[in-house]
Amino acid sequence: MSLVPFDDRDGWIWLDGQFVPWREAKVHVLTHGLHYASSVFEGERMYGGEIFELTAHTERFFKSAEILDFKIPYTVAEIDEACKATCAKNGLTDCYLRPIAWRGSEMIGVSAQQTKIHVAIAVWDWPSYFDPEAKKKGIRLTWAKYNRPSPETAPVAAKAAGLYMICTISKHAAEKDGYSDAMMLDYRGYVAEATGANVFFVKDGAIHTPTPDCFLNGITRQTVIRLAKDRGLQVIERHIKPEELSDFTECFIVGTAAEVTPVAEVGQYRFTPGEISLSLMDEYARLVRRELVPA
Ligand SMILES: Cc1ncc(COP(=O)(O)O)c(C=O)c1O
Questions:
Q1: What is the reported pLDDT for 294?
Q2: Rounded mean pLDDT of the chain?
Q3: DSSP string of 141-177?
Q4: 97-148: per-residue pLDDT in tens?
Q5: N or C: which end of the chain has fewer CB within 10 A?
Q6: What is the phi/psi pair of residue 65, to 5°?
Q7: Is residue 5 part of a domain?
Q8: Whose CA is nearest to atom 2 of ligand 1?
Q9: Are residues 199 and 224 in the same domain?
Q10: Which family does it belong to (predicted)?
Q11: CB atoms within 10 A of CB 91
């Protein structure tokens, strides 16, 4: 893990339409986004000079803002171009991108109708979300303390900063106990997702994955479902009870940061990274590098 703080690096950050030196891309302490989580963001990766599913990410970015009742003051095409330009300005062709939009400082009460909407894009080298050695063997997850909330309780379809509060607490508790991550249940007690990635299971050659009705239907999740179906694998989206994990032989989590990561343990349940997890991990890696042409 890098020990170089994220506010003390060389490079350029795109901030409200301009490139600013990395260390100068700051916000004031009285920023609405900081106090009330009126902030939405994206996580994307560029592979060999191309951002995987760039426009899908940008469109989700705009959708997330709309759900939080604000409008990003650019077009999707402008943000797409700004993402590419930020990678180029920093001389990176393989990197992680973090677009973020938030309410500014004009108002600091709960109501914030007149705040300016700010947008920034930062990019950096971020090779593997999980330790590469642990990844090959399958990572270990424990159960999270918090559940994903109901759509009646929170804007669950938005990639909104506030929804990550329970993820950070859960991931910290897992790491304290020596695990890589935590598996979250939803408000009904069904298996939902990890703290920053969707989950898949394998049983009798078929793939089972939770229905994304109270968490992000990740772009990687949708890609992996396509890859699996193209190979003729059956993909079943349904509600999965935690005790059903004893029936599954393989498990893997997927997300832009995690890519496809095999899982060896979720709490008391054990899995062996097998043919389906490992081949989808490999196919995804080839697809994002344009070495695999989708069917
Ligand atoms: C909570 C959560 N779920 C799922 C995902 C996977 O989404 P995607 O594949 O679009 O990156 C992410 C990562 O962005 C996430 O943070």
A1: 56
A2: 96
A3: EEE-SSPBPPTTTS-TTS-BGGGGHHHHHHHHHHHHT
A4: 999 999 999 999 999 999 999 999 999 998 877 777 778 789 999 999 999 9
A5: N
A6: -65, -45
A7: no
A8: 196
A9: yes
A10: Belongs to the class-IV pyridoxal-phosphate-dependent aminotransferase family.
A11: 9
Strand 235-238 with 206-210, pairing: parallel
Q: Is any ligand 1 atom within 6 A of the Cβ of residue 196?
A: yes
The protein residue with its alpha carbon nearest to ligand 1, atom 4, reads 197
Range of the domain at 98: 12-124
Whether residues 138 and 222 fall in one domain: yes
Nearest ligand 1 atom to alpha carbon 42:
14
Q: Are 249 and 203 in contact (CB under 8 A)?
A: yes
Q: Is 197 in the pocket of ligand 1 (CB under 6 A)?
A: yes
Binding site membership of 64 for ligand 1 (Cβ less than 6 Å): no
Instruction: Give catalytic residue positions.
Output: 159
Phi-psi region of 292 (alpha: psi -120 to 50; beta: other; left: phi over 0): beta
- The answer, yes or no, to whether any atom of ligand 1 lies below 6 A from the CB of 259, is no
Same domain, 142 and 282: yes
Domain annotation covers residue 246: yes
How many distinct structural domains can be found in the chain?
2
**Atom from ligand 1 closest to the CA of residue 44:** 11
> Which of 92, 124, 156 delimits the end of a domain?
124
Residues 168 and 275 in one domain: yes
Global pTM reads 0.96
Query: How close is the Cα of 96 to the center of ligand 1, in Å?
Result: 13
Q: What separation in Å is there between the alpha carbon of 10 and the centre of ligand 1? A: 27
Do residues 112 and 202 both lie within one domain? no
Q: Which of 198, 217, 222 to mutate to test the pocket of ligand 1 (most atoms within 8 A of CB)?
A: 198
Q: Report if residue 6 sits inside a domain.
A: no
**73-98 residue pLDDT tens:** 999 999 999 999 999 999 999 999 99
Q: Is 114 helix (H, G, I), strand (E, B) or coil?
A: coil
